[in-house]
UniProtKB/TrEMBL annotation:
<dbReference type="GO" id="GO:0016787">
    <property type="term" value="F:hydrolase activity"/>
</dbReference>
<dbReference type="InterPro" id="IPR047187">
    <property type="entry name" value="SF1_C_Upf1"/>
</dbReference>
<dbReference type="Pfam" id="PF12874">
    <property type="entry name" value="zf-met"/>
</dbReference>
<dbReference type="GO" id="GO:0003723">
    <property type="term" value="F:RNA binding"/>
</dbReference>
<dbReference type="GO" id="GO:0032574">
    <property type="term" value="F:5'-3' RNA helicase activity"/>
</dbReference>
<keyword id="KW-0547">Nucleotide-binding</keyword>
<dbReference type="InterPro" id="IPR027417">
    <property type="entry name" value="P-loop_NTPase"/>
</dbReference>
<dbReference type="GO" id="GO:0005524">
    <property type="term" value="F:ATP binding"/>
</dbReference>
<feature type="domain" description="U1-type">
    <location>
        <begin position="116"/>
        <end position="149"/>
    </location>
</feature>
<dbReference type="Pfam" id="PF13086">
    <property type="entry name" value="AAA_11"/>
</dbReference>
<comment type="similarity">
    <text>Belongs to the DNA2/NAM7 helicase family. SDE3 subfamily.</text>
</comment>
<dbReference type="InterPro" id="IPR003604">
    <property type="entry name" value="Matrin/U1-like-C_Znf_C2H2"/>
</dbReference>
<keyword id="KW-0943">RNA-mediated gene silencing</keyword>
<dbReference type="InterPro" id="IPR026122">
    <property type="entry name" value="MOV-10/SDE3_DEXXQ/H-box"/>
</dbReference>
<keyword id="KW-0963">Cytoplasm</keyword>
<feature type="domain" description="U1-type">
    <location>
        <begin position="28"/>
        <end position="62"/>
    </location>
</feature>
<dbReference type="GO" id="GO:0031047">
    <property type="term" value="P:regulatory ncRNA-mediated gene silencing"/>
</dbReference>
Length: 1017
C-alpha cells in the first residue's frame, strides 16, 4: 500500500486544473474529493473512493440542494446541481476544452455563489480572494486541514476488506439509542469475520477499542469468541459490548488485527452508541440537513410603488426634522473591498476616522462606527429574505407568513417596510409594503393599489432595515453643545465630590429603608444628591444582585423631595428595564410620572400597572401629551433610543436637571448620547449605573466592534483617571458590594474573577440556602453542579445556530426531578434555563412543551428558557446553564469552538450569577476546558466535589495559565495520534489493496487517537 501520510502536495494539482511548472518538486500523484473533503495519495485511490457508498450518498445530498449552483473551472459556465454537472463533464465540449488547455477533464466544480475574484476553500470552509489564495494554502491552518483530509483517506483504506477477509457489518457499528438502564447493564453487538479463501491460514491476533477522544475512558470492549482462527465457510465472532451510565454520545473505532503467514494486517470499523431517551431524540432530531442560506434573487428596480404608512407613524407631533444621514460612499466602498477584516479596520482607521478621538471629533468618530454597524445590519437582514412567498388578502391588508416571527427572528414592527418583487419575472417594478399589523406568525401590509396577487402568484420578499433608531443616534451625535468635556472626556477637575460623603454628612429620610441600611447604596444616594455643579457623570458600579436599580430609584425620589424644580429623564437600553424603573417609581402618581413608548410598540404589550402613565391618541396609538403638559411631568421614563423625543417635540435643552441611564453598560455610546446630548446643558447632572464586567452592547459588525463601538460609554469613562481607585471611589463612582441574590458557593468564583473578592453574601438565608442538603447535590454543602456530557452539537435547515439534544435531555431530567421534589418545593417560574444559541433555546422549549413532572411547562408560569442577553438583570432560584458546543473531532478544536460563553468572559459572568440557590452547568468539558476561565471554573467545581457525569481528563490541581494555549496543545496531541495511526495503517496494510465496500469514511469526521480500550482474547 502506498504512503498515506500527508506530503508536500502541489496546490495547483489539488485545487486547480493541474500544474504546468516542469520544475515543481511537490507531490503531483494526489487527488482531492471536494464533496467529502478527502485527499488521496496516490491519486488512483480516488477512483476507488468515488464508487463507494458514502461518497455516492454525499453527492446525492449535495445534488438535492436546489440552490446548489456549480461553476466549471475549465469551461467557465454554471450548471445547477450534481446531476447536471455529471452530464456537463461527460459532454464533448467540456472534454474538448480540457484537451485544448492540456488538463484532465475530471475536475471538481467550483461554488458558483462565490464571487469570480475569490474561491471557496472546501477544507477550511472559507472564501479566499485570488490574491490571498497562494498564502492561504501555505498557511498553518490550511496545512492542518490537509493533514486531516489525508487522515480521512487513510481511515478509508483501513476500513476496506482485504486478503479475502470480510468484516461484517460492512459499515459503521451503530448501537443506536440505548436507555441508561440498558447501557449500565451492557449491550452487545456481534462482529462477524468471514473468509472466502479456503487455503489461507489467517487468525485474529487482537481486537482493540479506541475512543475518538484520546483522554476518555473507553466504555467499549471487544471479546474474541473462540480461538481466533478464520476459516472459510465458518464465521469467527467478536463480541463488541458497550457499557456505560451517562447520557451522551460515544464514538470510536474497532481495530481488528490479523496474521497471515507471518504477515500482519488490520481492518477497522467505526462504532458509536448514544445513551438517552428515544422519544426525546425523535422529537428534537434534525428536521432538515443544514444548508447555508442562499441569497434570494433580487433585480435592480427602477420603479418603486409604495403603500401607505400606518397611522402610528404620524402619531407624534414632531417639531424637529429628522434627517436621513445616508452612509457615505467611501465607507461603503471600504466595507465592500475584497480584504480581510484586519485590513479593512486598518484602512478605516488610517483613512476615514478622525485622527484623534476627542471632544471635537467625538460625534463624527461615532457616526462612522454607526454607519459601519448599519452596513452589517443590512447584510444580516438578507438572511431573513424569502423566496417564492405568497400573500393572502384579509380586508385591506395583504398578510405574509414570516418564519421565525414569533421568536423575533426577524423582528418586524409596525412601521417597518418590506419590499416585494414577482418571482421569476423580468419587470423592473418593486412594491414597497408598510407593516400595519404584526401577529404571531404573519404581518399585515398595505401595498400600492396596483399590487394584486393572482391565485398562487409567488414573490421574492426583502425585509428593510428600520433606520429611524439609527437616524436618531446620528441626530444626537451631530448636535453641538459647548463645554461637553466634563461628560465626554472628564478630567480630575470634574470630580463629582471634593471629598467622599459619610453617614453624618447629610441627614436623609429614606423612602426605602433597605437603602439606608446598606452603606454603599446610602453613599451613592448621598453622593448624587450632593454632586457638584458641572461635574463628570457619576457612576453607580453595580455588580450582580447588588441593587443598583433600587439605588437609582431612591436617588430620584430624594432629588424630587429636596428640589421642587428637579426634572428627571430616566432611561434604560431596553423596554423591560425601563418598565422596571417606571414600576418602581409608580408611587409618584400619574400627574408626576410619564412612561413614553415608541409608536412601533403595541399597546397591549404594556404592563397593566403602567397603563395610567402612558398617553394614547384618539386612534389608540402611542403619542405624547401637549408640550405644556409634557413639561409638567417631574419624571419621564423611556428607552435610550426613544430618549430624544423631548428634543424632537420641542422641549428646550436643559429642561431636565438630571439624566439617569440604568444598565448603561449594555448600551452603545451612540445610544446613550441619544439620551444625553440633545437635552444637556452645563447645569445638567448625568448619572449612570451598570456593570462594565457584564454584557456590553450587542454589536454585529466585527469592524465596528474592534474600532470601539463594542465598548460602552460607561466602560470608556471608567477607564479614565478620574474613576480609578482609590481616589475616584466614592467621589466619582460608588461600588455596591452587598449581593442579595446568590449563595456563597455560586458567588465565590465570579467574585474572585471579576470583583476583587469584595462582594458580600447578603441574600435571605431561606432563599439562598434552599438547596443545601438536597439530594440533587453531589456535595450537600455546595449548591453548584457541573454535569459533564459527551454530546453532539447540530445545525438544521438554513439556521447557523447550534443545538445539543443530549444536553437538553440532561437538563429536562433535572427540571423534572426538581419539580417532583416535595422536600424542596419549587415553582416552574423559579427555574431558568440559559443557553448561548437560539436554536438550542427553541429546541429546549419544545422539549419542555411535553409533560414534565406531571404538568405542562408551556403556561404563563413556565420555566424561562432564554439567551444570556435576555437573562441579564434577571434571576431565578435555580439556573440550568447549557453550554451546547461539543465535538468529538479533536482537530477541529480551535478558535471556532471558542464561541458563546467560552469566548466571552462577560457572558460567562452574567450566566453564572443569575442563580440564587442552585446553579447547574451542563457542558462538554473537553471543549470548555480549552478556555482558561472555563478551565478555572471547572477546577473550582471539581475541587469542591460538585462534578457529575463524564470524568475530568486533566489535573484540576494544576495552576491555570491565563495565556494557556490549550487548543493548540490538544491539536498537537491529535496530530501525533494521526501520524501514529497513518503509520500503522501503512505497516498493516497487507499486500492487497482490497475491494471497495460500504465502509467508506464518513465525511467530515476524523478519528484522531490511538489509545487502546479494553482488549480481550
Amino acid at each position: 500500500m502506498a504512503q498515506l501520510a500527508p506530503g508536500n502536495y502541489c496546490p495547483n494539482v489539488l485545487y486547480s486544473t493541474g500544474c504546468t511548472d516542469a520544475a515543481c518538486g511537490l507531490v503531483h500523484d494526489v487527488k482531492f474529493c471536494q464533496a467529502c473533503g478527502i485527499i488521496f495519495h496516490p491519486a488512483k485511490l480516488y477512483n476507488q473512493h468515488i464508487s463507494g457508498k458514502k461518497h455516492q450518498e454525499r453527492v446525492t445530498i449535495t445534488a438535492t440542494s436546489s440552490s446548489n449552483r456549480l461553476r466549471c473551472p475549465i469551461c467557465a459556465v454554471q450548471v445547477s446541481g450534481r446531476p447536471n454537472w455529471q452530464q456537463h463533464v461527460a459532454g464533448g465540449k467540456h472534454r474538448s476544452r480540457a484537451s485544448q488547455q492540456g488538463v484532465s477533464p475530471a475536475v471538481e466544480p467550483e461554488d458558483a455563489n462565490v464571487l469570480r475574484n475569490a474561491r471557496h476553500c472546501t477544507l477550511c470552509s472559507r472564501i479566499i480572494s485570488f490574491s490571498s489564495w497562494s498564502s492561504h494554502v501555505r498557511g498553518a491552518e490550511h496545512q492542518r486541514q490537509e493533514q486531516h483530509a489525508s487522515f480521512r483517506a487513510a481511515f478509508e483504506q483501513a476500513e476496506r476488506n482485504r486478503n479475502g477477509i470480510k468484516v461484517m457489518p460492512d459499515g459503521d457499528i451503530d448501537f443506536g439509542i440505548v436507555t441508561a438502564t440498558n447501557a449500565s447493564q451492557g449491550v452487545t453487538i456481534m462482529v462477524v469475520v468471514q473468509s472466502d479463501n479456503p487455503s489461507s491460514q489467517i487468525r485474529v491476533v487482537s481486537a482493540s477499542c479506541i475512543m475518538k477522544n484520546p483522554n476518555s475512558a473507553c466504555p467499549f470492549t471487544a471479546v474474541l469468541d473462540g480461538s481466533g482462527e478464520v476459516r472459510a465457510a465458518r464465521d469467527t465472532r467478536l463480541k463488541l459490548t458497550f457499557r456505560h451510565q451517562n447520557v451522551g454520545r460515544y464514538e470510536g473505532r474497532l481495530e481488528i488485527h490479523f496474521q497471515r503467514s507471518g504477515q500482519n494486517f488490520m481492518i477497522v470499523r467505526r462504532f458509536k452508541a448514544t445513551i438517552g431517551d428515544t422519544a426525546d431524540h425523535e422529537l428534537l432530531k434534525v428536521m432538515k440537513p443544514y444548508v447555508k442560506h442562499r441569497r434570494v434573487p433580487w433585480r435592480r428596480a427602477s420603479q418603486f410603488l409604495p403603500g401607505s404608512p400606518p397611522p402610528a407613524m404620524n402619531a407624534v407631533p414632531w417639531k424637529k426634522k429628522l434627517e436621513m444621514y445616508p452612509t457615505p460612499e467611501n465607507i461603503i466602498a471600504a466595507l465592500r473591498a475584497r480584504a480581510s477584516p484586519l485590513q479593512i479596520i486598518e484602512f478605516i482607521r488610517q483613512s476615514i476616522l478622525p485622527a484623534t478621538f476627542n471632544e471635537t471629533s467625538h460625534g463624527l468618530y461615532l457616526q462612522v462606527l454607526l454607519w459601519i454597524e448599519e452596513y452589517r445590519m443590512e447584510q444580516d437582514m438578507r438572511s431573513y429574505d424569502l423566496a417564492d412567498a405568497t400573500f393572502k388578502k384579509e380586508g385591506r391588508y395583504h398578510f405574509l407568513d414570516v418564519p421565525g416571527l414569533a421568536e423575533k427572528r426577524p423582528s418586524v414592527l409596525i412601521g417597518d417596510r418590506i419590499e416585494v418583487q414577482t418571482s421569476g419575472a423580468t419587470d423592473d417594478r418593486c412594491f414597497e409594503g408598510w407593516v400595519h399589523l404584526v401577529r404571531r406568525d404573519d404581518v399585515g401590509l398595505d401595498f400600492h393599489p396596483s399590487f394584486k396577487p393572482i391565485g398562487s402568484q409567488r414573490y421574492n420578499v426583502r425585509f428593510q432595515l428600520n433606520r429611524i433608531p439609527l437616524r436618531r443616534q446620528h441626530q444626537a451625535l451631530r448636535i453641538y453643545r459647548s463645554k461637553l468635556a466634563r461628560l465626554l472626556f472628564p478630567q480630575p477637575q470634574h470630580v463629582g465630590l471634593t471629598a467622599s460623603v459619610s453617614a453624618t454628612d447629610l441627614s436623609l429620610v429614606y423612602f426605602d429603608a433597605r437603602v439606608g441600611n446598606n452603606a454603599a447604596q446610602a453613599t451613592a444616594v448621598r453622593s448624587i444628591v450632593e454632586l457638584r455643579k458641572r461635574a463628570a457623570p457619576f457612576i453607580i458600579f453595580g455588580p450582580p444582585g447588588t441593587g443598583k436599580t433600587v439605588t437609582i430609584v431612591e436617588a430620584i425620589r430624594q432629588l424630587l423631595a429636596r428640589n421642587s424644580q428637579a426634572r428627571i429623564l430616566a432611561c434604560a437600553p431596553s423596554n423591560s428595564a425601563a418598565d422596571i424603573l417606571a414600576q418602581r417609581l409608580s408611587k409618584l402618581g400619574a400627574d408626576q410620572l410619564f412612561r413614553h413608548y415608541a409608536v412601533s410598540r403595541k399597546p397591549d404589550e404594556v404592563p397593566n400597572d403602567l397603563r395610567p402613565f402612558i398617553f394614547l391618541n384618539t386612534q389608540g396609538n402611542f403619542s405624547v401629551p401637549p408640550l405644556e403638559r409634557l413639561s409638567q411631568f417631574r419624571v419621564i421614563v423611556c428607552t435610550c433610543l426613544s430618549a430624544s423625543f423631548p428634543y424632537g417635540v420641542g422641549l428646550r435643552a436643559g429642561h431636565f436637571s438630571h439624566i439617569f441611564v440604568d444598565e448603561a453598560g449594555q448600551a452603545s455610546e451612540p445610544e446613550v448620547m441619544t439620551a444625553i446630548k440633545p437635552m444637556v446643558l452645563p447645569s445638567t447632572q448625568v448619572i449612570l449605573s451598570g456593570d462594565p464586567r457584564q454584557l456590553g452592547p450587542i454589536i454585529r459588525s466585527t469592524v465596528a466592534r474592534e474600532l470601539g463601538l463594542g465598548r460602552s460609554y460607561l466602560e470608556r469613562l471608567m477607564e479614565r483617571e478620574l474613576y480609578q481607585p482609590p481616589t475616584g471611589r466614592n467621589r466619582s463612582y460608588v461600588k455596591l458590594v452587598k449581593n442579595f441574590r446568590s449563595h456563597g458557593a455560586i458567588l465565590a468564583f465570579p467574585n474572585q474573577q471579576f470583583y476583587d473578592d469584595e462582594l458580600q453574601v447578603s441574600g435571605s438565608p431561606s432563599v439562598i440556602n434552599a438547596y443545601v442538603g438536597s439530594r440533587h447535590l453531589e456535595n450537600l454543602k455546595f449548591p453548584v453542579i457541573f454535569h459533564a456530557v459527551s454530546g453532539k452539537d447540530d445545525k438544521e435547515a438554513n439556521s447557523p445556530s447550534y443545538f445539543n439534544v443530549d444536553e437538553i435531555i440532561v437538563g429536562k431530567k433535572y427540571i423534572a426531578d426538581l419539580l417532583a421534589d416535595r422536600r424542596h418545593p419549587i415553582k416552574k417560574n423559579e427555574i431558568g434555563v440559559i443557553a448561548p444559541y437560539h436554536a438550542h433555546v427553541r429546541k429546549f422549549r419544545k422539549a419542555l412543551s411535553q409533560k414534565v413532572a406531571g404538568a405542562s411547562v408551556d403556561e404563563d408560569d413556565a420555566v424561562k428558557v432564554a439567551s444570556v442577553e435576555e437573562f441579564q438583570g434577571d434571576e431565578r432560584k435555580v439556573i440550568i446553564l447549557s453550554t451546547v458546543r461539543s465535538s468529538r473531532d479533536l482537530l477541529e478544536y480551535d478558535a471556532r469552538y471558542a464561541l458563546g460563553f467560552v469566548a466571552n468572559p462577560r457572558r460567562f459572568n452574567v450566566a453564572v450569577t443569575r442563580a440564587q440557590a442552585l446553579l447547574i452547568v451542563i457542558g462538554d468539558p473537553s471543549v470548555l476546558s480549552l478556555d482558561p476561565l472555563w478551565r478555572a471554573f471547572l477546577n473550582y467545581v471539581y475541587l469542591n466535589d460538585g462534578w457529575r457525569g463524564e470524568p475530568i481528563t486533566w489535573d484540576p490541581h494544576a495552576p491555570v495559565d491565563d495565556n494557556g494555549a490549550f487548543a493548540q496543545q490538544l491539536q498537537q496531541n491529535s496530530l501525533a495520534h494521526i501520524t501514529t495511526f497513518m503509520q500503522q495503517t501503512q505497516e498493516l496494510a497487507g499486500d492487497e489493496e482490497g475491494e471497495v465496500t460500504g465502509a467508506d469514511v464518513e465525511e467530515g469526521a476524523a478519528n484522531t487517537e490511538l489509545v487502546h480500550g479494553g482488549v480481550q482474547e
